[in-house]
Every structure is written in C-alpha cells, then in structure tokens.
Write a structure and sequence with these properties.
Layout: H1 2-23, H2 52-68, E1 76-81, E2 87-92, H3 95-121, H4 131-165, H5 172-196, E3 225-226, E4 230-231, E5 240-242, E6 249-251, H6 256-276
Antiparallel strand pairs: 1-2, 3-4, 5-6
Amino acid sequence: MIFIVYWAALHILFHFKMKKIKGTLTTVEAPQRVKIDTTFRQNKLTYSNYWFLVHMAIIVAIAIITILNYKALPNAIPIKYDLQGHVTSSVPKTYLSVLAINLVQLGIIALLMLVNWSIKSSKQQLTTSNPGQFAAENIQFRRKWSLFTIVTGLLLTILFAFIQISMFVPNLVLLTAISLITPVVIVLGVVWLSLTGRQGGGKIRNQQKDHERSKEQPVNDDDYWKLGFIYFNANDPSLTIEKRYGIGWTINFARPLSWVLLLFIIAIVVISIVLSQ
C-alpha cells in the first residue's frame, strides 16, 4: 500500500509538471494522421488459451488424488508455517478446506486467461514513420508476454500442487525450495522481458541519429488520458489498451464492459483471499 501511494503521488506530481512544460511550448495547428495495418489481426498475436488446459488437467488430477486420500489426511489441515517449519495456523478437515487450493488455482488460471485475452485484443498501436517494422515488433512483444503468462500460470499451478500434496505426503525441504524458487523465476522473467524491450516491443535505445528520425509526431491523445494514466475514450471501441508508459495493459474506462472485466478481476482476487483463509 505504501508503494502504491508513493507511485501515485510521484506520477501525479510529474504529470502536472509535464503539462505545465508542454503548455509553454510552441504548437502548430495541423491535421493529425493515423496509420493502421488492416492485416494486423490476421497475425498470430498470442499463444492460444487452450494451453491452459494443461494447467487445468494438473489441477483436476491433484484434486482427484486429494479426494482419494481424504481419509488419510489429518483432522486439522495446516495452512501456515513459520520459518522453522512449525504449523502456525490450521483449519478443520472438510472437503472445502482440502480443495480450497484447487479453487484458488482455478481463479488464478481464469485471471491469467483474461490477461492473455487482453494481450491479444488490445488496441493496435502504430507509428507513422515505420508502421511495418513497429507492427512486427509489437506482434513479437505480445507473443513474448503471452508465453510468459502461460508459463507463469504453469509454475504457479505446480507450486500449489506441491502445497496440496504436502498435506498427505509432507516434505518441508522440497516445498520450501519450490516456494522460494518459483517467485524468483517469475520475477526474473518480468525483469528480463522489461529490460529487453520497452512497451509495444520497441528497442530500449534507439541508435538512429537525430537527423534520421522522423519529424512526424504521434497523435495527441492527451485528453483521453486522465491524470496521464487513466484511459477514458467513449469513441474508442477498444476494451483494453497498452499502458501509456511502463509495461502492461489497462482498460478503457469509458466502456461499460471494461468495468465488468474490472469487477470480475476484483471478484477473483477477493474469492481467492477468502478461500485461502
């Protein structure tokens, strides 16, 4: 929460500073041009959500194994441990308590499938100077993050599977190792993808000389970015769009269905938290 508040304050501060600077610059009234690639959607932008069937198969298999071993489980199911491996919290054994992990897994998979869908359906972004190259880089960018989303889901599924299996086949050393390695691998993946390409797939550093760069400017859509990071455009049919800066995607808050998606995401998180207690 401290990080979120700090991030928001820092962003808003510099947003208004940039608006003030921009207001002092000389502007020339000229028509704005937008270029689109009508074949963009014909490309394979992401990996299929059918890959998540592998994750679901693992979840179902572990759930079946758990049910078959239900009688062998202790009457109190441990759900939290301290650093020494001692149980600090447990819940009475019920079918809901032993299968709660599977329900949380399904919620995570549903959320990741939604992310993968948003990567595919996100609004097309192009530059006026070299739209063909930019489109190719953007496609590669989407495919990388789509693959990362699927792999992340698989790693989390395996992690939760080991947590569930440890209820009737305890192996604290192996469980601790997997619990530490999995988040480290995921974070390193995020860092690597973020450092090897900026938003949209472009290169971090542009080695072109200034005089070689295009004089054309991107479309001015400042009015649609409230506070610089909240996209609100009722004339845009897109539900999702690339963030204006950083890495990731956001929603078009002017579209009612986008609010439904947002509430769906919040519901998944809340339900997962409740089931994990």
